[in-house]
Automatic annotation (TrEMBL):
Keywords: Arsenical resistance, Oxidoreductase. It catalyses: [glutaredoxin]-dithiol + arsenate + glutathione + H(+) = glutathionyl-S-S-[glutaredoxin] + arsenite + H2O. One of its GO terms (biological process) is response to arsenic-containing substance. This is Arsenate reductase. PANTHER family: ARSENATE REDUCTASE, ARSENATE REDUCTASE-RELATED. It comes from Paracoccus thiocyanatus.
Length: 145
């Protein structure tokens, strides 16, 4: 199975996740979901594979979430999915699919749990935080500071 990332290149978390995938030696299929949103069936499948409630995939910051009143519990899962399809920016990111699972990778280190290949060297997030040491081992947050 090819690793796939639903990516927003303007999102630092998404860029870090893409870089972590590449640091494992894999070149994923990159879907810029704002330009190429998933179909309804695909989005439903992704949510099921992640095992999360539909509401947990909604992004608030920088979206029409508040304007649409999405805090209101009146919206059904189907209605929320329809709104995500109408406004893809409402879909939180990045979503990564691998042979080991599907995750909403927030924080970016969450991708390490589902990558089939180990990290091949040191990795630092864009902000300089060390995530993986020179031996390809994950560095815990408290030890990195």
């Amino acid at each position: 199975m090819t690793t796939t990332i639903y990516h927003n290149p303007n999102c630092g978390t998404s860029r870090n996740v893409l870089a972590l995938i590449r640091n494992s030696g894999e070149e994923p299929e990159v879907i810029e979901y704002l330009d190429t949103p998933p179909s309804r069936e695909r989005l439903v499948d992704l949510i099921a594979a992640m095992g999360i409630p539909v509401r947990n995939l909604l992004r608030r910051k920088g979206t029409p979430y508040d304007d649409l009143g999405l805090d209101d519990p009146k919206f059904s899962n189907d209605e929320l999915i329809d709104l995500m399809l109408a406004h893809p920016i409402l879909i939180n990111r990045p979503i990564v699919e691998t042979s080991l699972g599907t995750r909403l990778c927030r924080p970016s280190e969450a991708v390490l749990e589902i990558l089939p290949n180990p990290q091949q060297g040191e990795f630092r997030k864009e902000d300089g935080e060390l995530v993986v040491d020179a031996n390809g081992r994950r560095v815990n947050e408290s030890a990195a500071r």
